Fold this protein.
Amino acid sequence: MSPALVIQQMLVDLELASNDEAASNNAARAFVGFLPVDPNTAICVYDTAGMEDGRLMETGEKIVHPGIQVMVRGQHYLETRNLAHQIALALDAQRKTVVVVSGVGNYIIHNVSRTGDIMSLGLEVEGDRRRHYFAINAVITINETT
């Protein structure tokens, strides 16, 4: 299971992102694990280091909350920052959310806990192209369901 894939689908379900190049809404295109050069306005969700949260005494099973990073890129600082803010608020609001990832499985996002505020990662300048980057880091509590 890739938590990043589940979070990407959650953002699509909330209409904050699109995973289809020909999507009819104006949502930013969302990717998992790799942010291509185009489009200028895009979101990428990465799997990152999680956080250990102890173990179950009866079985010894370790409890680990997977980590994710949501990277938001855009040409205009305020618009890109606002999109990152909307995504951060959406992550904060998740509570027992069912997400169906086509061809992969069904998941319940029990909780998303951001590990800090939205971070500005600066400006990328390449030729006449200028793009701002923001990142949101979090750990999640998630499990597969039937």
In short: Strands lie at 17-18, 28-32, 42-55, 62-74, 97-101, 105-114, 119-126, 129-145. The two ends are 14 Å apart (CA to CA).
